[in-house]
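Chapter summary example.
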Amino acid sequence: MIDTLPPLREVIASHDLRARKSMGQNFLLDLNLTAKIARSAGDLTACDVLEVGPGPGGLTRGLLASGARKVLAVEKDARCLPALDEIANAYPGRLQVMNGDALEIDALAYLTPPIRVVANLPYNVGTELLVRWLTPPAWPPVWDSLTLMFQKEVAQRIVALPGSKAYGRLAILAQWRCDARIVMELPPEAFTPAPKVHSAVVHLAALPTPRYPADAKTLSRVVAAAFNQRRKMLRASLRSQSPDIEAILTGVGIAPTARAEEIPLEQFCALARALQPSPMT
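The structure predicted for these 281 residues follows.
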């Protein structure tokens, strides 16, 4: 046991917290697993931590027991608030609970750096939140690292390499600005209720500067165009980017007949630089 609070099954029973599919809820009840997720985020003793979707608070307890300086837990489901209040009382002054939608709240603004994000994200908002955290107005971001649970398929897309079916926009977005790796995998039966898919925890450590130089908006536009028609050759899928696209592709060492999934991050960045609009003079 990581603390003196009741086991999570008792907490769920006493507060009648049946997981709701409409909220993408699948509760992880094994406190040994939640503690392991917390440890995979590294030393938290000098950090503020953002947690999205704490539910009955299993991971929250793991983060606090691991010594997190402060945890801000954003929970949309008001039914979970009494259970989270009990955790706050057990860790005075270290847990702040915010009832709201993480897609509508700039929760990072309520924390003091260094900041880490650690969450068992609700499946229905996980990818959107990740993309937002990876695309702030300026880089480096306010957070140091993201340790996030996703469906295993999504986790594999984040760490995918060129030439694989999972390789696409999400891999490029994550790996351009972060070191990304899968640190844990969990079977469906680890959750209540058991989802139909396996899950995995991904750790993303922010790089001080992007891995290769490129304008973020240009890179995003080019990658989106390339992968939106991933079966087409790049000379066709990127025709809208420039009337001279074949010459530009050749100029940066990309065969115009290549397809998006064959192109490594470094070459996409070179292509983005070649296609970046010239500044007005």
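To summarize the output: The chain has eleven helices and nine strands.
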